[in-house]
Amino acid sequence: MLARMALTQTTPPADPTRTAGDTATVDAALDVLSGRSGKGRFGRLLLFMGPAFIASVAYVDPGNFATNIQAGAQYGYTLLWVVTASNLMAILIQSLSAKLGIATGSNLAEVCRNEYPRPVVWGLWALMEIVAMATDLAEFLGAAVGMNLLFGIPLFAAGLVTAVVTFVVLGLERYGFRPLETLITALVGAIAACYAVETLMDRPDWAAVLGGSVTPRLPDRQSVVLAAGILGATVMPHVIFLHSSLMQGRIVVRDPVLMRKLFRFETIDVMVAMGLAGLINGAMLIMAASTFHRGGLQTVGTLEEAHRTLQPLLGRTAGWVFALSLLLAGLSSATVGTMAGQVIMQGFLRRHVPVWLRRLVTMIPSLVVIAVGFDPTRTLVFSQVLLSFGLPFAVIPLVMFTRRPDLMGPLVNHRATTVLAFVVAGLITLLNAYLIIQMLTGG
Fold first, then answer.
1. Would you say residue 11 lies in a domain?
2. What number is the average pLDDT over the span 49-75?
3. CATH assignment of the domain containing 147
4. Contact indicator for 432, 388 with CB cutoff of 8 Å
């Protein structure tokens, strides 16, 4: 009886935009939180899975392909530890982002707008828009290159096809949050399957893989640039905003006990999704290290070269699987990037832009880059370094807000969590400062 009363007090008003499927999922999840569900453990957990998998797409986008392949080809397994460290950072940061959405009922951009002076809000919005454009650049280029490698479609035409497919996928939102979550999760699973095949075919040195995963080492300045690129491609600033938005209205509870239960379920969602994304990133670098670096092909630094070189080394299947995974990553991350851009603009400015207009505006820089003929892979790596520069301006506000009891209530950070999060933010900031110094001094 008490559980039923608590649930009644914390159930949100009916959302007119929700479908019958959404309502059924939310009702079943509320039954689990209140202890009234008869589902098994896996069935209960499945109700809460999904948001982190949407966020995880950004962690396996084409920018990851570019940075990981260059890192593996040039340095072998040496920079695998950066992938490991970046993934652990991603788990922590995405957990905080989900917690902010659950506790406040607002996303990170909205909280920034409510808590910061207007000039700061405008500055953060402008910076995050640049980040969103850099993200779109990576996603469009990756999908275009994937289509070109698979079907021979010219890059510019492939970019236009990417835009059309993105519109189609985003159209699933009208049918509720579950269809989009299911599709994105399936795409992440397909990318993982592609790299499982690649890893089996290239037969890596597992002892060296283990050593590289846990031994921090940066041999030279170029490795620092690639490390920043890996970090920027793994801990993506735009999905920090997006994940909090996905959680703010999905399942709403205000009872402290139910909020803690909900956050525990969402923490599992984050760990599974980010863990899978981390394995995919590691597999990308391992493939490049065990195939190109071990074969004396350290100069393989572009996606096209990687595809072309894989075929004689591992067979046509390897090249086809590589191109397919790149295409899937580009198409899925382009969808997620548009969703994040919507959240950033609406949250900071209270301005709603039709999704078709947002997609049209943000894809223009990508199409210009393709039309001018810039090297796709170098442009991808540069975009990931740019994302790394934007990270502190998303991570630091997130940590500052989640440590405040007045905002977070029962989900406020433990002291140890806040200290660890500030250490992560400090490491990111120091790495970016080093890169700026190197650029200014011609390093």
1. no
2. 82
3. 1.20.1740.10
4. yes
- Residue 195 is encoded by which pair of tokens? 């790299």
d(CA 289, CA 203): 11
Counting residues of the chain whose pLDDT is more than 70, the rounded percentage is: 85
Nearest-10 crossing angle of helices 316-349, 108-115: 30
For residue 10, count other CB atoms closer than 10 A to its CB.
19
**Using one digit for the tens of pLDDT, what is the confidence trace for 360-374?**
766 777 777 777 777
Number of domains making up the chain: 1
pTM over 0.70: yes
Boundaries of domain holding 366: 60-440
Which residues lie closer than 8 Å to 98 by C-beta, 6 or more apart?
51, 52, 243, 244, 246, 247, 263, 266, 267, 269, 270
In the prediction, which pLDDT does 4 show? Answer: 38
Q: With respect to residue 43, please indicate whether it lies within any of the assigned structural domains.
A: no
